[in-house]
Amino acid sequence: MMHKRYTKEQLTAVEAQRLAQEIAFGPVVFQVSRLMLKFGIFQLLADKRKGYTLQEISVQTGLTRYAAQVLLEASLTIGTILLEEDRYVLAKAGWFLLNDKMARVNMEFNHDVNYQGLFYLEEALLNGQPEGLKVFGGWPTIYEGLSQLPEQVQKSWFGFDHFYSDNSFSQALEIVFLHSPKRLLDIGGNTGRWATRCVQYNQEVEVTIVDLPQQLEMMRKQTADVPGAERIHGHGANLLDRTVPFPSGFDTVWMSQFLDCFSEEEATSILSRVAQSASKDSKVYIMETLWDRQPYETGSYCLTQISLYFTAMANGNSKMFHSDDLIRCIKNAGLEVEEIHDNIGLGHSILQCRLK
């Protein structure tokens, strides 16, 4: 896919010129389309295939004629709606914005979490720090501040995170539990969604989550009433502190959407400590969305754009991995890849590893 898509020009001159203008007006296109959703105009057009006139849309939505008109005319040239005589109707792109859950999750994530902070992307790239995070607070990374972010920002952040992981967990459980783990170490377990699925999937497994103390507090609240919660344990640690070892004695180590939160150097340090704590029989599973191993090019597009969230907002130095980069980190840490499972959920891959 990469060779076919990214080594040869795909556009005509006219198409390239159009794309250049779409890029120049990108922030406007984004906000217009978001408001077409929020004000219910896309839904209105979806509910009536013959469409509505400008005046009817104004009345139905409660928007002034002017407000409805500027949104509709912009959307017409964006390509999310069409005009049939004097009636506006929904186009395919508008339908996807309305009905594709991934598009909605990405849009909410970009508006609530990233939009203001991306103004500082230039400084973030030059300084290697998440300079955009200052729109919410003074934490060194977003992870320390998750529990203190505004409610809507938290909702969109966790909605984004959980949407991608939850769609992969059912397949992932089958792969991990093929080897009947008894003691599973979940590094970077966040709010405990994977641990919860594990203790519900298997009545014997014990899961220990390693994460920041404040994340473990959120995890305990989230899992308090979960059947099997007594088999979910917490181990507080600053994962970036290279002097902090990981607990040992686990037959299985799990990391999901975790290593992309760190630079290659930091990821290698974490993996090295995994190798130090593992036995020769331990299985190490790393689940990531690798941008070069996506079944569709749209997935690669989304993931490379999401990388800039890490740059501007999360930590200033990580990104969505190319598989070659992640495999290099794994090898440098003293581990080796046994098998790669692709097409897990929405574009995830699971790298099954062991000690060299």
UniProtKB/TrEMBL annotation:
PROSITE patterns: SAM_OMT_II. GO terms for molecular function: O-methyltransferase activity. The keyword Glycosyltransferase does not apply. Residues 169-319 form the O-methyltransferase C-terminal domain. It is an enzyme of class 2 (transferase). GO terms for biological process: methylation. CDD domains: AdoMet_MTases. Keywords: Methyltransferase, S-adenosyl-L-methionine, Transferase. Its EC number is 2.1.-.-. Pfam families: Dimerisation2-like_dom, Methyltransf_2. SUPFAM superfamilies: S-adenosyl-L-methionine-dependent methyltransferases, Winged helix' DNA-binding domain. InterPro entries: BVU_1015-like_N, COMT-like, COMT_C, SAM-dependent_MTases_sf, WH-like_DNA-bd_sf, WH_DNA-bd_sf. The keyword tRNA processing does not apply. Signal peptide: none annotated. Residues 17-88 form the BVU-1015-like N-terminal dimerisation-like domain. This is Class I SAM-dependent methyltransferase. It comes from Phocaeicola dorei.
